[in-house]
Queue: 4 jobs
Job 1
Amino acid sequence: MSNIKTAKRDRVPIGQKAAFGSGHLVLNLLPGALAVFMFFLVTAFGMDPFLAGLLGGLPRIFDALTDPIMGFISDNTKSKWGRRRPYIFIGAILSGILFALLFQMSENNSVMFNFWYFLLMSLLFLIGNTMYATPLVGLGYEMTSDYNERTRLMAFANTVGQIAWMLVPWFWVVIADPTVFSLSDEALRAIGEMGLTGDDLQKITDEKLQANGVRKLSLTVGLACAVLGILPALFCKGIDAGKMENRKKISMSTLGSSFKDLFQGIKEVSKNKPFMKLCGATFLVFNGFQMVASFSFFIIVFYIYNGNYGDAGTWPAWFASLTAVVTAFMVIPIISRIANKFGKRKAFIISTVISIVGYILKWWGFDNELNRQFNETSLGQGLNNGVVSIFNAINPFLDSIGMSWFSMDTSQGGPWLMFLPIPFMAFGLGGLFTLMMSMTADVCDLDELENGMPRKEGTFGAIYWWMVKLGQAIALVLGGAILTLVGFDEGAVSQTAETMTKLRLADIIIPASTAAIAIWVMLKYSLNETRAREIKEKLIERRGEL
């Protein structure tokens, strides 16, 4: 256990931690909401799935180019407000406004009009989001120079950030709920004048409801992100850059030399072995998790409820939200304590091993027969009756505030055992981003020792998160390929028993395997607390406190 007490000057006040956490909430909420809303490009706006796929992939290429550039600009900026905060302030406002505008399309437009509108607005949104996200990550790396306070800061920020994942699963539920986002009288009249009946009438009504829900909810999300996003710019403090030497001049006249310096910085970062281990482990854990992220939804709907979406109800949303709740309020505080006692590398290995146990437990947690047996026990019956009583009591209130979608019906029992693996699985991503971001801050010190000024928190942050985005993009492609390989047919009312068995195995084997490889990658990670404190002392001796 670390016996070194964090100096007062290195402690981050709770107000600054909260402000930085609000920034992480925005970092999670924007991509989470974007992923949900883009699903409705096909179902609500009539987009061809191939075109919708292009809209998901093409902007990522642009994003990969802008991240390192913004990191370089942020690292070398000179202003009285600091290197990061002006960009965070402007970027938060732009991100919120452009996200809202992104989905202000009409389902009555031509498909190609909506395609080009969404593509161009996506590029503008990514510029604003990059201007916000990259400096924010860099700011977090420099808010404290203390080895353990960095972990506490990232733990707090990631706890707040998990609120986004408590909310996002419910977007699926509320978008098409007419009690939440009702159609205007004009829209209802237009539907009636079409003269449709039966399934055709239901289909066009659902499409109009979904499009209306996406437009209205995107305005709420955009406004919330703009307001929450500016808080780190107003209240967080980075290092004093006044003593920072060798910063490059950023202007049109120095464009050529700036690109040369940019590529030199990227080259230096890529030679940093501890950092590349962090990137490799993150790619493996996150990619493995994201590859099967949608599988739990399909298993609940098509295995537990045999393809009946109505019976499945809100169980998928509860599963995802409860995972975020456990991650935020149970797992992350535990990981922070483990890191303080055993060091960050050991904490990562411990948390990743626990997550593998959780993945394996999903085989029994999602088992229909075991869930049936549990519901017949006195504990299961008591749980079902208790939940029924609770929602019977609060349903009138939920109805009165337009939240009837939040209700749960357990009168026929429920797949309660599927929640048992969650406390174990949550150690995976909970440990990953808490520890990796803290360790990246340590790596920035090592880079300054080896390569001198200016410090490159922005560049390190840009490349690290580029790896995360690359993993997410690859995971989307591979996840779809795996669904095809196991014989999953999304258009079918139900799936074969063989398909669901293969899907359940893939849901366990893939993330467990990538997590195991990530542990192997981190076994020889060498930047421990002793080495980190030695580096800090050498830097202070060289250039004083920043």
Job 2
Amino acid sequence: MKSYYPFFLLLLTLYAPAATAQHSSVISAVLDTETRTLSVTQQLVYVNDSNDTLQTIVLNNWIEAYASKDTPLAKRFSDEFIRSFHLAKNNERGGTDNLEIHFSGTGAAADWFTMNDQPDLVEVNLPNRLLPGEKTTFEMTYLIKVPSDKFTGYGYGPGKKLYLRNCFLSPARFENHHFVKYSNNNSDDMANAPTDYDVTIATLQDVKLFSDLDEQESGNPVRFVGKKRNDFVLFSSDSHEMRTYKNDVTEVVTDLKDNNIDEIRKALLIDKIVHYVDNNIGRYPYEKIMVTQADYERNPFYGLNQLPAFISPFPNDFLYEVKFLKTYLNNFLKNSLRVDPRADNWIYDGFQVYFMMKYIDENYPGIKMMGHVSKLGLFKSYNLTQLDFNGQYSYFYMLMARKNLDQPIGAPKNTLIKFNEQIAGKYRAGLSFRYLADYIGKDNVEKSITAFYCKNQTVNRSARDTLETILKAATDKDIDWFFKTIIDSREIVDYKFGEVSKTKDSVTFTVKNKTGTTVPIPVYGVRNKEIVFKRWLEGISTDSTFTMPRESATKLVLNYNNEVPEYNLRNNWRSLKDFRISNRPIKFVFMKDLEDPYYNQILYVPTLTYNLYDGLSPGFRFHNKTILDKPFVFDVNPIYSPNNQSLVGNFSFAVNQNNRDSNLFGMRYQINGSYFHYAPESAYFKLTPIVFMKFRDPDLRSNHKQTLVLRNVIVKRNNLPDTADDELQNYSVFNAKFIDGNTEATKHFGYTTDLQLSKSFGKASVDMQFRKLFNDNRQISLRLYAGTFLYNRTDDDYFSFGLDRPTDYLFDYDFYGRSEKSGLFSQQLIIAEGGFKSKFGTPFANQWITTANVGFNIWNWVEVYGDAGFVKNRFTQPEFLYDSGIRLNLVTDYFELYFPVYSSNGWEVGQPNYNEKIRFVVTLDPRLLVNLFTRKWF
């Protein structure tokens, strides 16, 4: 290894900048916690510290992002299916009012403007060009309306609590000959220029103020100052939630929830973590740092935060320690580093997760992902409980890679889907630095991080280039692959063994590169679960053969400790014993587990289903669906029907194919089968070979998705009347369906085209849906459906279009009583085909149908609906029908009630047996309900 420190000193010499003047901002504000406003007077001295001549200056005004429903922040919420911001009251949103900007000295009003698509940025036109080294001074007055903290965690909370970040006007960073114009999209990546702050806050109520700036004067008003700050936070409260802890490194102000641990223990843990970060990264450049509960809740430690306290598998001390460590590291790095928080966010994430993993290794060696649960005999067979605590990071990354939803960790933060931004991308970044440390040496990587931390605080140049230069200077090995492949691409890594031969003293083996991605990978020799040798293999672009000493190993394993973010670990080992079982043994697991690369896992789960004819039916589901998606999936669910005292159930076998570099995002080849009762003592068997072709935009944040479905539905029904035609008992239908949709919280548009061909009939249809939530919180939904028979050789309405209830001859819908003509189960509504809610004497169309379904909300989840359309049967004139009523839209598509009012039948409310006219939508399938809560993450 080459000497590191001479190069470090060389860097200090080459990159030492000349002293430059600093932007400065003097703020005087009056806080009114009752009206939740700040009246601000601000003097900003802007220094042109670039080599460019400036004609305009850009100021960040991120609080304005809360002002309307059309800002980039509002659109981000809609994109992630969050309706709370759009439906909020006006006084719950924030913004900047009465902004006035004048030039100091002359007092002339500044010419300033905001762009329509970026209202949270203010551009100020300068009366004269600002040359390099010159400065100009603004005087600004404005009123800040503080938003509710329920949207982002920043804003006002219960009582007089306020937590403010990015709320005052601040100069945008100027880099590479232009201002960095980032709008607020709730990702904490404001690109402020380092500024000296002098902030005086007076309060109209009795509250205590805290800030991560240094407190110069206490009382009311209170004065805070700070030098070269990217930003600062302001916290107010009338309670005593904040605690201050001070040591020889810095002063920590925190209200992080402590799970009932005593103050002494808490102080010791904080002191331990502060010194750990100081020793491993460097000295915090400021005298004070805030670690708040709001900061943690914005970026929690996923896994720990999902468990209620009464079943937590970890001691309270450990929980607090991990929460504080994560939040402290995040704030430490964000406050200290001069890194573009959007373009180079992976540097923040990588450093944070790397040192979190190192902290666990040093302080809690052997701790498992599920804590003390791993020691309980009932759970010892689960890979989920036996996985090392740090092992969970690679699983979260792999979760997205197997779904084909992973993104380059070097991509700008605003382009990442939510799961990648908050979980998988962060963890992959930390794992990548850990991977590099294992390859070139832990000391080399950690000394490079320390050197980068020191250099980055003084050098105004690309953070990525600086880090790359320092890392490459620390090793003689080629690490271009680290930046080009691991950071900048989403190429997947997958190696496997080919032929293996052995002697008593040596072993010869071939390694196959399944994806063509060339990165170093370690091979281990293992004996009785102990490592007897480890070698790094490099440059394996094609199949490569190696020979090395055997050293008593009985097993060869690639990537044994999972250093490399590899796509598939199930093909990474090969036994060297004379007699070996080539296939992995079968392991039965109850409920759910992580993928175990050394076993073929079969999971078994009790199930409970219901329909009117089979009754409440218990069963057992056997499948191989672990948390990670797999290329081959089977699912078999035998169920006992108590009403018929027989077995029913369903099965599915599927092969998944991900396309990494195509809009044809993924394909699935599948065969499904089901056997249930559809009427008393009458059952159906359905067999469906099917191909799914899923299309998705290259921009994974887009909610625009398309699916082409090709299937052949084969149905056999029994116990039909002797007079029934053969085609009603046994039939086969080819079905081609194309689904196109773009869905957000505030709008949706989609359509489905459907073609069905069989011996007895052919039909085509189109279903178009539109939904819009307007700025006045009124919502309109519109559905248009049109279908026609291409040919129809049947005399029965079994295959006809349904006006208010489809016959569902393909058995696609979850009807609980599909054959019922009266009673509660006949009132179940599934919006398909005609989509009417009222029932008429002409419920079917055997020639063509066209309908429109409209809904409009009148108060929250109360809507009015109306349906109208034509039904055409053979040998009759088209019949026009309509209905209208009230819809209680409690949970869209999952729980709804429809109350008919007036229709072609007349005034329905006054007619007999009105309760039998009410229709309902109820979804009981837990897998469908899960989608309601997870869709915003993917």
Job 3
Amino acid sequence: MRLPAAAALALAVLAGPAGAQTSIPAAAGSLPLPVGQAARPLTLAEAESLLVERNLVVIAARRGVDAARANRLVAASLPPPQVVVGNSFAQFNETAQGALKGARFLSPGNNIQTGLQVLVERGNKRTLRTRVAEDQIGAAEAQVLDAVRTSLFALRQAFLGALLARANLEVALGNRQSLDRTEALLRRQLRDGAIPEGDLLRFQASRLQFESDVTTNAQAYAAGVAAVAALLSADPAAFQAGAGTIPALGINPSQPGRLGPPEPGPRGRAEAPPGPASAPTSVRTILSPVAFDVRGRFDAVPDLGIGRDELASAIGSRADVVAAQRQLAAANSNRLLAEAGQSRDVTVSGSWGRSRLSQDLPNSRDQLDAVNSFGIQFSVPIFTQQIVRGNIGVASAQAGQAEAQARAALLQARADFAAGWATYEQARALLNLYTGGALNRAEEAYRSTEQAYLAGGRSLIDVLDALRVLNATRVQANQARYAYLLSLAQLEQATGVSGIAPRL
């Protein structure tokens, strides 16, 4: 009875992990998952386009450009002139003996003074102010590009992480489907008396670790999608319930969201007799609703398409390096503006006054009706040398600080490139190992263990151990793909050269 039972078991196993799982990596990241009706599919290209439009960090950087342009309007303006208007509204006379006589109130028409005050800037200050503002506009524009660069990398990292969890979830669901078929066959054999109950119990105890793969990767996928949604300014918690069923993959809970074992009911034809072997061996898993259903060809292995020297030469054009250089230019312009303070500004004031007050002109033959007076004044600040020297010192120190920051930004960019290139080389080598035959060897090892089990030389536990190795190899192959794709995105972030990141 042993050989027919083993042969039947082999047919079920061969139709499971070895056969069904072999085709999964070819479409990893693109199989439909039960994510709910409100979660529309989202590709990486669509996510990148949405990020440029909706990411809050990028929007905030754009508002910085608007503020810098508005500041240029202020900097390019001439100092506004000031108009002065006044009058004497009351008058009283005082005699030589100290008596007060003739007190009266006066209307503005009888006594008025007007003046115009203009600040004349010297030392080309207006031109230098405008240059500082224009340099700040350039720095703000570069900061927008840098915000796009860093946000794109964060999006790609989160998106690839979600695809990795999705691919691993597909592997785990395929393993569960195969193990469910095998366990159903063992239950049937136990019922028919073909195997002892201990064989089924050992199988059930050995398959539990595969269940944690399902729940762990389902949680990782939901977390990855939530990170993508946050970067796209979408509410990660704004979704409609409705996720949860793929009957072909064993996700079909009787109650939505329930994670417990099934309710007890009448035993079917394939179930084992009551006892420890009849306890459930898989969780009733429902995939948490998510805002998006990320899709992509996770098995894609794009070439870099550009050499190391070309990438190294492009580092100086990285957005944050350019922004630091423009900040340095603005700091140097601001130092020149501070030095222009050595040329003192002149304030010119012109005035006109008309008074119809009585005049004390005892010797005049003509009766006066009003007196018109004109005046001009020039004012120049004094004792400003120490203030100007202090302003120049502050501006010079800020220019030195900006120069150090620009050099640090360039060195950091080169360090990022060096680290990114090393990561790329190692990830490429590891991926070549898996695509060059490591995964095939694990599958062949699993098949050979099955054949040995058919011949009676191996036990069912040996077959499960081989499945564990195959499962670990597939998961590690997915991790190698993720590391390689992420290294391409990291190289684009490190160099600022567009088109390097993978297109899935």
Job 4
Amino acid sequence: MTNTNGTGAPVPPPQGDSQYSAPAQPAQPGQPTQPGQPTAHHAQHSQQAYYQQPAYQAPSAQPAVPAKKSSGPKTFLLAFAGAALACVIALSGFGIYNAMSGSGDSGDSGSSTVIGSTGNSNINAADDDATLAEAVAQKALPSVVAIDVYTSQSAGGMYGYGMGADSDSSSLTQSSLGSGVVLSEDGYIITNYHVVEGGEAYKVTIEGEQYDAEVVGTDPSSDLAVLKAQNASGLTPIEIGDSSDLIIGEWVMTIGSPFGLEQSVATGIVSATSRSQIMNSQTDGSTMIYANLIQTDAAINPGNSGGALVDANGKLIGINTLITSYSGNYSGVGFAIPVNYAVNIAQQIIDGKTPTHAQLGVSLSTVNEQIAKRYGLAVNEGAYVANVSEGSGAAEAGIEVGDIITKFNGTTITSADELMLQIRALNPGDKAEVEINRNGQTETLEVTLGSDESTQAATQQQSQSGGSIEDLLRNYGGNGYGSDGYAS
């Protein structure tokens, strides 16, 4: 295969089947690791791919069809679906202006909307879990909402499929539900994109009172969205914490509506930080990127999506999003999007901006030992540069088609997706050191990361029109790629 820009540089061909499988990640501290893989060795050899929970229905009079046994734990999104007792999960992803590195700037200083509580209170409870949990719940529960999503039966149906020609297209039915977190007194609410995806009408329940709501904006690739409760005032916004200085082992609480059970809490600890994952949507084929997730053993179940992960002071530190599980329900491994990142996305949406992601400006393909041997490449692992976008940070730094990126900011790069995760953990305008191998010679270049703002609108438009992953990647300048086909 050759680059379609006419450069003539060889591009590593697809490896195996055309479906994306979760990449192996090194188990070194600080490097992106995949949720659910017990060891690096297991990750390297596992044949199972992470995917969204397809759907399940609560027990009924109908005989159940036994599910196929899984060869390993799966990563699920956690929207709860069905008008009463059925769940359906929709996929989503990651990436935006201020990454999870802990930047304190929450948005445009000129914004008229203040996100989060203006207070800064700490909880002083005895060293007793029950007492602490009671105090934290009392503080944070008023800021967590239940979200009901309604769709036309003919448009979506219970599991996202049409209900037949006899369906009443004007009838809206509750099709899914999730959780959200109040960001402002006048009703701005942050949640997961997969909670609101495909909805035609929304209702939110806040402290026992129900409001109609509308979607202000979304960023599908980050799996985040903002709703606005209509005619709301005097709400209790959550107090915003800091996800940049979390300590493994510190106490946390999850709050949300598991299985539609509103205002539910569960406690646990921060199990790990800096967990990363790339997933593909089963609804529109789009690529979703999660970087630097918070791992917790506090219970997260279907319906918790979009809810709050708070610390021992009742401050928001994450938005509950994923679990790794054999069953699709809680198994002790859940993940939340860090608040520093999530709030910056929300601020951009509220300010009417298009959320943006850091971008290197290249199309990539993974290099492995087999590919290196076949094409006579100088290194056995890395990210092969199949295309360089004109005017991008990569182009200005001197990165060329045919280069193999082997390190990024000191982190060894073993695959294209690993490089993408590293890039998405930074902000547009950040500088990074990129080590490349060019014709057997190693060079280190300094790159100023760009922004994908100019392509985001086209990407979202393509996604809404049902385009393929290949179409989306072309919007990012991905004109030549192998099986990975990532544009960063």
